[in-house]
Amino acid sequence: MTCAPQLSATCSMPLARCAPKLSRTKMSPTFRHRRPVAVKYEWFWLYAAVQPATGKVFWLVLPSLDGNRVQIFLDEFADRYAGRGKRIVLVWDGAPAHRFGELKIPARITLLRTPAYTPELNPSERVWSLVKEAVANEASETLAELEQKVCSRCQNITSDEVSARTNYHWWKSP
Question: Most buried one in 9, 44, 62, 146, CB count within 10 A?
Answer without folding.
Answer: 9
